[in-house]
């Protein structure tokens, strides 16, 4: 009975032995595929839960520009709060 099991296992392994050689890409292709997959995962993680990522990017840039203008027009630029003693 164990002889039949061995025969079927051998047949299964023999058909899989040649398939592994054709599937493995060269190291450069593999490296490129891994880099693309990592970039895709990073984008998915960044955008998780955000319906419109482009709008969020625009909003962030606008906010950064506003903060930059506020910092540049600080105390010496006028336009801020002024102390009055009276």
Automatic annotation (TrEMBL):
Cellular component GO terms, alphabetical: endoplasmic reticulum membrane
InterPro entries: SVIP, SVIP_metazoa
This protein's record includes keyword Lipoprotein: yes
Compositional bias of kind Basic and acidic residues: 27-46, 54-68
Pfam family, one: SVIP
Residue numbers spanned by region Disordered: 1-86
Biased amino acid composition, Gly residues: 75-86
UniProtKB keywords: Lipoprotein, Myristate, Palmitate
Gene Ontology biological process terms from the UniProt entry: negative regulation of ERAD pathway; negative regulation of retrograde protein transport, ER to cytosol; negative regulation of VCP-NPL4-UFD1 AAA ATPase complex assembly; positive regulation of autophagy
PANTHER family: SMALL VCP/P97-INTERACTING PROTEIN, SMALL VCP_P97-INTERACTING PROTEIN
Protein name: Small VCP interacting protein
């Amino acid at each position: 009975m164990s002889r039949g099991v061995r025969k079927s296992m051998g047949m299964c392994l023999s058909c899989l032995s040649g398939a592994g050689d054709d599937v493995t890409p060269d190291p450069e292709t593999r490296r490129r595929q891994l880099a693309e997959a990592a970039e895709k995962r990073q984008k998915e993680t960044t955008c998780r839960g955000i319906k419109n990522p482009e709008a969020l990017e625009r909003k962030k840039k606008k906010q950064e520009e506003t903060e930059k203008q506020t910092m540049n027009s600080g105390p010496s630029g006028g336009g801020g709060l002024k102390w009055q003693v009276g």
